[in-house]
Amino acid sequence: MGDVVLRVERRLGRITLNRPRTLNALTPGMVREIYAALAEWADDSAVWGVLIDGAGERGLCAGGDIRGIYEHASKIRLRDRASAQHEQDGPKTFWREEYLLNHRIAEYPKPYIAIMDGIVMGGGVGVSGHGSVRIVTERSVVGMPEVGIGFLPDVGGTYLLSRAPGELGTHAALTAARLTGADAIHLGFADHYVRSERLPKLIEALADSPEDAVREYAEEPPASQLAEERRWIDPCYSADTVEEIAHRLRTSGEAAGEAAAKELLAKSPTSLKVTLKALRTAKVLDGLGECLDLEYRVACALLTTHDLVEGIRAAIIDKDRNPRWSPDRLEEVDRASVERCFAWLGEDELGLAVR
C-alpha cells in the first residue's frame, strides 16, 4: 500500500494517511493524492461523504514532512540568488498545493469527517480542522507548534486560532500549547468527543448517517483546562507586543503564567513577532481563503531566514532541542524584518481570496 490508502466503503470515501513510522507526516505526493480523490468524489453520486483517519496507534498526522524543507532552505542559504530561486520551488510548491487542499476541504460540498485521534499537529490540523464533522477523543493532542521551528501556524491555523474565544488562540500559538480533545472543541478546532474505544463502531455507523452516528457515540467532553485559565490568559495576551505579553505573563502571579512565559521565550523571537502580527491581521480578514493567502506570503518569506533552518535542525536533524536563534532576543527583532514577511508576492500570490 502507498502513503495514502484511498477506497470507497458503503458510499463513504475513505482516506487513510499511511506513514505510521513518521506519524503520517504529509509529503507533496500525499497532498496531491488527497486533492485528486476529493475532486473525483465530489462529482460521484455514489459517494455521499468523506472520512479521513491515520494508520497506526499514535495519531492522525504530526504535520508536514519538514526534513525536505530543511534541505531546500539550507541550499538557499549556501547558493547564489539564481540557484536559490530554483531551490525555493520545492517548499513553495508544497505549501501552495497544501493550502489549496485545506481550502478545498473547507469548501467541500459533501460531509468531510475527520477522526482526530492521537497526535494532530500542524499539517494534520490542515487536513482535519477545516472539515464539517471533526471528532476528537481522550487521546487527542492537537496543536500548532510552528514557532518552535522558526515558522508560523499555517494551513489555516491563523484562521482557527484568531477566532478562538478570547486570547486562547494567541496563547496556543505563541507557546505551541498542546490541546486536549476538550480544549480543541472549546477553541473551535473540533466538534465532537468520542472515546477512542468506540471509534470502530462510530466509523461503521457513519457510513449510514453521520448525524445518527454522532448522536449515538459522541458524549459531553470533559471540562477544558484552558477555558478555566482565561482569567489570566486574556489579560496577558491582549497586549500589542510579544515583549509586553511576556512581561505580563512573568508578573501575572500565576504559576501557569510564568510557565507560559518560559515556553514562549524559548521560541524563535522572529517567529513570535511574525505570528502575533499574522494572528491580529487574520482576525479581521473575511475568511479562510484570505488567511491562507496571508500565510503563504509569510511562509515564502520565512523560507529564506536563519531560524527556519535552525529550528528544523534542532528539532529533527540533530535533535539536540537547542536552537540558536538569530536574533536571539525579542528586542533585537526589527520591525522591517517582520513587515517584510507580509509583502505582496505579485504574480506568485496564492490568490484564494479572489477565487
Helix-strand blueprint:
Elements: E1 4-9, E2 12-17, H1 28-42, E3 49-54, E4 59-61, H2 67-78, H3 81-106, E5 112-116, E6 119-121, H4 123-126, E7 133-136, E8 141-143, H5 157-162, H6 168-175, H7 181-187, E9 192-193, H8 199-206, H9 210-217, H10 225-228, H11 230-237, H12 242-250, H13 255-265, H14 269-282, H15 288-302, H16 306-317, H17 335-340
Parallel strand pairs: 2-3, 3-5, 4-6, 5-7, 6-8, 7-9
Antiparallel strand pairs: 1-2
Helix pairs in contact: 1-3, 2-3, 2-16, 3-15, 8-9, 11-12, 12-13
Question: Can you describe what's shown?
Answer:
The chain is an alpha/beta fold and 355 residues long. The protein has a single domain (4-354), classed as 2-enoyl-CoA Hydratase, Chain A, domain 1 (Alpha-Beta Complex), CATH 3.90.226. Helices cover 49% and strands 11% of the residues. The chain contains 17 helices and nine strands. It has helices at 28-42, 67-78, 81-106, 123-126, 157-162, 168-175, 181-187, 199-206, 210-217, 225-228, 230-237, 242-250, 255-265, 269-282, 288-302, 306-317, 335-340, and strands spanning 4-9, 12-17, 49-54, 59-61, 112-116, 119-121, 133-136, 141-143, 192-193. It has a six-stranded mixed β-sheet with strand order 1-2-3-5-7-9, with helices on both faces. Helix 3 packs antiparallel against helix 15 (288-302) and helix 11 (230-237) runs antiparallel to helix 12 (242-250). The two termini are 35 Å apart.
